[in-house]
Amino acid sequence: MLNIAICDDRPIQRKLLNLLIHEYEEQNGARFNLYEFESGEEIIEKFDENKNFFDLFFLDNFMKKLTGLQTALRIRDDNIACHIVFVTASDKQLQHAFMAASPLEILFKPLQQEDINKILDKVLAGKVGERP
C-alpha cells in the first residue's frame, strides 16, 4: 500500500486532493495511506523520522515558511526514489525551477480527476514493476 503525503497550507486544497485520491481508490479498487500536512516544516519533521516511509508527495509551492520547492529539495537530499508532484497555482514560468527536484509531475490548480488518475497509475505501475 502506498503512503501518500499531501502538503498544502490551505485545508480546502488538502480536502480536494484527498477526495480526488479517494475517487481513484473507488474507481480502481486501490487503497492508499494518506497523510495531510499544512507546512513544509511539518512534513520534513515526519520525513526525518523515516526517510523511506512516503512513496508519493503532493506539495503546494507557496506556503508560510518553506516553499514546496524548498521542501522537495530537502526530501531529495535523502530520498531520490520517492515521487514528488507539485500542485500549484504558481505561474507556469516557475516550472524550470521545479525541475531541480526531479518531480514526477507539475499540476496547476484547479486539480482535475484525470490528472490525479494519471499520476497514481504511473506510481502504481512503478511499484508493481519493482516486485520480483
TrEMBL record:
Q: Which InterPro entries match?
A: CheY-like_superfamily (IPR011006), Sig_transdc_resp-reg_receiver (IPR001789), ST_Response_Regulator (IPR052048)
The job of this chain, per UniProt, is described as: May play the central regulatory role in sporulation. It may be an element of the effector pathway responsible for the activation of sporulation genes in response to nutritional stress. Spo0A may act in concert with spo0H (a sigma factor) to control the expression of some genes that are critical to the sporulation process.
Q: Where is the Response regulatory domain?
A: 3-124
GO-annotated biological processes: phosphorelay signal transduction system
A Pfam cross-reference name: Response_reg
Q: Where are the 4-aspartylphosphate modifications? A: 60
Spell out the PANTHER family in the cross-references.
TWO-COMPONENT RESPONSE REGULATOR, TWO-COMPONENT RESPONSE REGULATOR ARR22
* This protein's UniProt keywords: Phosphoprotein
Instruction: State the organism named in the record.
Output: Desulfosporosinus metallidurans
UniProt signal peptide: none
Q: What is the protein named?
A: Stage 0 sporulation protein A homolog
Q: Which domain of life is it from?
A: Bacteria
